[in-house]
Specification:
- The strands form 2 sheets. Strands 1-7-6-2-3 form a 5-stranded parallel β-sheet, covered by helices on one side. Strands 4-5 form a two-stranded antiparallel sheet.
- The termini are far apart.
- Helix 2 crosses helix 3.
- The relative contact order is 0.16.
- It has a domain of about 190 residues: Rossmann fold.
- With about 280 residues, it is α/β, with parallel strands linked by helices.
Amino acid sequence: MRKTYSLHKISDPSGFMFNPDEYSRFKFGDGAVAKKFGTSLAKGFIKEVLAFTPIHRQIVVFSSPYAFVPTATFAMKTHFVYELNHWLAENNYPVIQEAKVYRTITYKEDYGNLDAKQRLALIENDSFHIDRSFLENKLLIFLDDIRITGSHERMIDRMIKSNYLDNDVFLVYFAQLTNEGIHPTIENSLNYHCVKSIFDLNGIINSGEFQINTRIVKYILSSDPETFGIFIKDQNDAFIENLYNMAIGNGYHRIENYSVNLKYIKQNLIINKANLIVNGN
């Protein structure tokens, strides 16, 4: 069994069944919106799918594939699992297990700004990996925030086939583009609906609910050096250290578009701070 479920359908570019500003904040790390989206997605999935699906196997939930730094979906996944676990426990089913889809390549291109052909060409260079032995005889739920062209879905399908998995599978999305007449770049319009410049991130970062992800790391590091310098000096030490560690963990220091700003952090903020501590300031 392989089934797809989406909570919201996008059929009109001028109207959405969810708040596009909230979606944009979610994509840049707003944990409060991630909680709202994950909870509502789980409730919809339970009401429309699980309530009519006999559960005979352990359920395993996957967030969207990532290497070191998680995607925005990871934060949503946490609350999806919480809500799903409440229902499973109330109905005497085993609670969720989690697993990870590993990916091998990170890229600088803004995926949401590509058409279907470009997306497929980009992601075809990537490869997804999974722990096959852990998944035997389990029901698999692959979670993602939005389905536009299905290129990621095809990579998941290829991974399942290459690992000879015969598990029942659900592909679950917060939203799905259902009108093929709408250009895939509608995703970018949603991603940046309320983030027009790097300085629009301050409200998200300082909200008390911020959770770092690949999109915000790449967006900050791709800023022009002058703008980046102004922005980063207004951030606290904990954020700067987290940004640097996440970027290095994802190998962004090897990508020219990001390396200049990473060098700035290291030279002007990390090394200088260490020197001040050594010198007693």
